[in-house]
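Attaching the record inline, Q. Sequence:
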Amino acid sequence: MSDLLQRLRGRGWRMTAQRRVVAEVLSGEHVHLTADEVLAQATARLPEISRATVYNTLGELVSLGEVIEVTTDGRAKRYDPNAHRPHQHLICSSCGTIRDVHPTDDPVAALPSSERFGYTVTAAEVTYRGRCPECAAD
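Structure, as predicted:
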């Protein structure tokens, strides 16, 4: 059973066949699918699943904090199931591929107190950009 499915069961989330399929599609490392990609894969597993069900389930998972919604440079939103593993994203500026990365430095600690303007900083989002090996070869 995937990590996401285990977390959802632990929360007592009502696991319908449709919700289970969406969660299964989102399972894995470096998964950053668009809603339409989730729909296509879910439909392949459960042909009767509707677009509305997929979109509503994704919205619920984001609201629960079990999936992260990733928005990049005007591209379609992507859904990251690794919400409980601290990480940042590495995005190809050409094709839009997203990879999870785990830098060793704490981005919150890296912000000098003189740049905090009195805020109590609790989190930081860092996005690394570049070109993936496939795009760099072109």
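The helical segments are 3-10, 17-25, 35-45, 51-63, 107-110, 133-137. The beta strands are 33-34, 68-70, 78-80, 88-92, 98-101, 127-130.

More tomorrow.
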